[in-house]
Design brief:
Blueprint (H helix, E strand, L loop, with lengths): L1 H8 L9 H7 L2 H17 L6 H25 L1 H4 L17 H22 L2 H21 L7 H10 L1 H10 L4 H24 L1 H6 L5 H5 L1 H19 L1 H4 L5 H23 L3 H32 L4
Helix pairs in contact: 3-4, 3-9, 3-16, 4-6, 4-7, 4-9, 6-7, 7-8, 7-9, 8-10, 9-10, 10-13, 10-16, 13-15, 15-16
């Protein structure tokens, strides 16, 4: 309780935000990706769930992700106030108070877990609870400010939604769902390190030990290339494991090769405006890469391409 009171006392805001402010607390862009990857887990699961239950399960996963975002913003108010890309968020801008965001996030967290357990199963609910805990406590409160491996380890939270979706339908965790997890888990470091390269000054100002801040931009570029090399076979794993078809196999190979190309371009362009542009291009393509791979898995599953 003393810790919570200390955190809340640091926040000078008027509160009483609008509906749009509370929606912003949920990080809707992140939530949309969570819903989509969880949907792929639901559709690929071998069992069949009633469509209404699937919709409710996806809604619970989305709300749980949004709750994590709200709690993340509650804890990170001090650094969000410093960084240019986050200073206009609801809490540092004063539109929502810290206690309001904390209460909002906790209510949504508990509610989403309980409802998912009731409409689906308690394995999925436990996974959702672990995802929220891992993102808020392990990543946000501990790893983010203590180690340059924050994104590597903390990426597990963002990689779990398809596993939660799969287990919501099947009641178990399988090799296939772990493969989906590994795609996102391996994708996360090069995606965020590309962002960190062109937002390096922000992270320095906020004293966040992102990879470029701690080990330098050159070493970060090396790490990005290594992870991009690993991502190529990991992205193809659904085809290798036999739960996707030839179309996905070929598509994932092309997209993985393109990802590696942009990573190498970033490695080659080390100074000036060209280096910044290369980092931005990789970051933007990484979003296309992940969404398109999961979209192809969804299309193959729904229309049986490559069967």
């Amino acid at each position: 309780m003393a810790l919570l009171e200390q955190r809340d006392s640091e926040i000078a805001s008027t509160g009483s935000g609008s509906v749009q402010d509370y929606i912003a607390l949920l990080k809707p862009r992140v939530m949309s990706l969570v819903i989509f990857t969880a949907l792929v887990g639901v559709v690929l699961a071998p069992q069949v769930q009633h469509p209404i239950l699937s919709v409710v399960s996806l809604l619970c996963i989305a709300i749980g992700a949004g709750a994590s975002g709200a709690l993340n913003m509650w804890w990170d108010e001090d650094i969000d106030r410093i960084m240019s890309r986050t200073k206009n968020r609801p809490i540092p801008s004063g539109r929502v108070s810290g206690p309001e965001a904390f209460a909002f996030g906790m209510v949504l967290s508990v509610g989403s877990i309980i409802v998912l357990g009731l409409v689906s199963n308690w394995i999925a609910a436990a996974l959702l609870a672990f995802t929220i805990f891992f993102y808020v406590v392990i990543y946000t409160m501990w790893l983010k400010r203590s180690t340059p491996q924050n994104i590597v380890i903390g990426g597990a939270a963002g990689a779990l939604p398809p596993v939660v979706g799969w287990s919501a339908v099947s009641g178990n965790i399988s090799v296939e769902s772990i493969a989906l997890f590994m795609i996102i888990f391996t994708w996360t470091p090069p995606h965020f390190w590309a962002l960190a390269l062109f937002k390096n000054d922000d992270y320095k100002a906020a004293n966040i030990p992102m990879m470029p801040v701690v080990v330098g931009e050159s070493a970060t570029r090396n790490q990005i290339v290594l992870y991009s090399l690993l991502l190529l076979p990991v992205g193809m794993s659904p085809f290798i494991l036999g739960f996707s078809g030839m179309i996905y196999g070929a598509f994932s190979a092309v997209m993985g090769s393109a990802f590696l190309f942009f990573a190498v371009q970033l490695w080659l362009k080390r100074e000036g405006r060209d280096a910044v542009k290369a980092a931005v291009r990789l970051f933007q393509f990484s979003l296309i890469y992940l969404s398109s791979l999961f979209a192809m898995l969804l299309v193959e599953s729904l229309f049986k391409f490559g069967a």
